[in-house]
Amino acid sequence: MRSRYHLAVPVWVLAAVSLGLSVLAMINSLPLARWAYADWVAVSAATRESLLYGGPWFAAWGAWVAGRYLGPRSLLCPPSAARSGPRVVRAQLTLLGVAAACGHLLGLLPVLTWTAIQARTGALNPLVLLGSIAVLLAFGALGYLIGCGLPRTASVLGAVVASFGVILMVDTWGPALAPLRLSTPAAGFYETAVVAGFRVAFFAVCALALSAASAQLVAERSVVFNTWALGGLLTLTAPLALGFVAKSTAPLAVQREANPVPVCSSAGPIDVCVHPAKVDLLAALDGMVDNVMATVDHRPAVPVAGLYDSSLDREQLPNNFVLLNIEASDQQWLDWAAGDLASQLAGQPACLHRGDAFGDDVAPLLDHMAVSEAFASWIARNAGFMAPQFDVRGSSPQTLRLEQLPTDQVQSLYHLSAAEIASCRLPSSAIP
Description:
- By secondary structure, this protein is mostly helical.
- The chain has helices at 2-8, 11-29, 40-49, 51-69, 86-118, 126-149, 152-168, 170-173, 193-219, 237-249, 282-295, 333-345, 348-353, 362-382, 397-403, 407-416, 418-422; strands at 189-191, 254-256, 263-267, 270-274, 306-309, 321-324.
- 58% of the residues lie in helices and 6% in strands.
- The strands form two sheets. It has a four-stranded mixed sheet with strand order 3-4-5-6, covered by helices on one side. Strands 1-2 form a two-stranded antiparallel sheet.
């Protein structure tokens, strides 16, 4: 038995599969360790999304193994061999699957360890992790089937193209059926157990059906075309039926967390509230609020009662609270947060509430909005933050004019024009 398994797939092939998947999983998942906080929701999703290149890699090796050892003229395992058919397919796919799963998990180990140490709340979603393993096995089985039906070189290329094609058709499959979703949820959301559990079953059935089809092709292989060899493709009706049900019902794959309890601190009179997973960010946010408010002498034109993390329930957002979109994956997440607060102090929400303008009202509205953005950019910069939301279009003439003025003159203009700034009605002619 032992010698047969060693002959089924060479050790160097198993090592290449495992090592490649380990490296690819590590490369794709380690960026999460650079987030501003440890997020189990995002890390759980990364166990699946890290297969962006790992899936095609495994499919290519599956195709290579089948093409190398199971061609109709193979001397290593000819069609007449006693172990031909299901036995050799089962032996090879078992070895490949174990090597692939071990490599994938090994590559995820660093980010899982870091998150386990750093995370303040939550845990790894086991169903999402199992679903990632099922997806990986389905990729390998797909490549193996292609390798059984095409010449070796063509099958490897075909497996890679087919794998990427399946991945990129995410909108066609829908969230329940797509191998990867090409997006990463974070704290404040969760992947539903119904869809996560369905994905485990669905992709496991896909892997088994593809394996059965491969076994039929290998059992009936011949140097001439044999229609019976295609009979195994009928096994694919099982995953097709499951997929039809999932597409018809379209269950929600990701939902917003219901009423997460905010964790709050105070920066003077201003409350700062975040999702429990982001509690480590409070100290930095408090410091940012102090610096930004000091720029306007703690006398904002627009009252601010607090800052509220967008990961929390927005329907419970109190009056005069700034909604913070914390870009945890961006190293400038604090600059983004400072920009959100500066926008509030400069009256930008009032600009949005003014609605559309027509005719002669367009130019004044655009001018007032440019002044509001100029003050927001100035407030953030003078507080020591380079808010990316103000740097996308470059500095406007209004911003350049403000930056050329002394700080005390800009502050004086801000306070004297507080009413106009709060209502987004300060014209650029007011700037010296």
